[in-house]
Design goal:
The structure is a single chain. The chain is of the alpha+beta class. Helix content is about 40%, strand content about 20%. The chain folds into 2 domains: about 90 residues, no CATH class; about 45 residues. The protein contains 5 helices and 3 strands. A 3-stranded antiparallel beta sheet has the order 1-2-3, with helices on one face. About 5% of the residues have low confidence.
Amino acid sequence: MQALNEPDPLTVPLRGKIREFIETLATTELTEALAAVRYARGPSRQGYRHGWSERTLTTGMGPPAVTLPRARLPGRGQARLIQGPETTEWRSALSPKYERRAAALDAAILGSSCAGANSRRIKGTLAPPLRGAPPSKSASARVGSQANT
């Protein structure tokens, strides 16, 4: 019975690498969107990087604080300058704007809620794999309302 309460020897190193993996995926996605690697100049370039933003994205491996790249792409959007070109902010498909949980985690919350679990049980059930970042009391209600639309 004690083996169930101890950390899994495979999961511990994976949790340490999840942040690095998410950041690599986002950087690769941005490189493809810009059609240029970092610091490269050329006629095929489709925009410019402009910094990083830090976010906490809760996954099934815990809540890593990831640093995602930012960029501006040409196209419809707000003009940066009055006479400047119109641009739009690049958004990663991995973590859309305002998303703080992975889709698989939302599916687990929705499945538990549909099975009749209340928010306290959902929070208690998901607390061990999420390492101290269980869903809030209103998370199941928000996930359920999004599923109905």
